[in-house]
Specification:
The chain has helices spanning 10-13, 20-36, 77-91, 119-123, 127-135, 159-162; strands spanning 2-3, 98-101, 106-109, 114-116, 138-141, 153-158. By secondary structure, it is α/β, with parallel strands linked by helices. The chain has one domain (2-162). The chain has a 6-stranded mixed sheet, with helices on both faces. Helix 2 packs antiparallel against helix 3 (77-91). The longest helix is centred in the first third of the chain and has 17 residues, at 20-36. The protein is globular and about 40 Å long.
């Protein structure tokens, strides 16, 4: 398992960050994250999720931050996953990208060996761990995400909650 290399492929990703649907998904879903957390703020067009980072994972990073770090936000994987899916589909439209999600993590996977996400990639967490967290203790069922077709989503709910 590997990550889609955001750093090396940034030149292909960056133009899609101006896409109106991508921007709308990012601002809407991060604003939902804020609401669920009890924050009164909404992410506005032109703001980056990283501006609201509350963890210190980045403090040991040396040098200039790569631009993709602006699209990370600790604890928000379930709220950034639709944004990641939209970007992945625009950047690599020939791959069969879909959301995989469990109670502990949500990410985007191509159905083969590649994960497309900003958070764990930036944190330095191995891609296999991202995959395992998104699929741990689960049974596969489909779930609708707003504005995403059923075939794009694999929702993996904990077997414990299904009992």
């Amino acid at each position: 398992m590997k990550y889609y290399d955001l750093k090396k492929r940034w030149q292909y990703i960056k133009p899609h960050l101006r896409n109106k649907k991508v921007i709308k998904t990012l601002t809407t879903d991060v604003s939902r994250f804020f609401y669920v957390r009890g924050y009164k703020h909404r992410l506005e067009k032109g703001e980056y999720p990283f501006l609201y980072e509350s963890c210190d994972w980045y403090l040991d990073k040396k040098g200039r931050f790569p631009e993709y770090i602006n699209y990370t936000l600790s604890g928000a994987c379930h709220y950034l996953v639709r944004f990641n899916l939209k970007l992945a589909k625009l950047v690599e439209p020939d791959r069969n990208w879909r959301i995989i999600s469990s109670n502990t993590h949500s990410t985007v996977w191509d159905g083969e060996d590649t994960i497309f996400e900003f958070n764990y990639y930036a944190y330095g967490i191995p891609a296999m761990e991202a995959f395992k967290k998104a699929t741990e203790n689960v049974s596969v069922i489909l779930r609708m995400y707003e504005e995403v077709e059923n075939s794009d989503v694999i929702n993996l709910k904990s077997e414990e909650t299904n009992q």
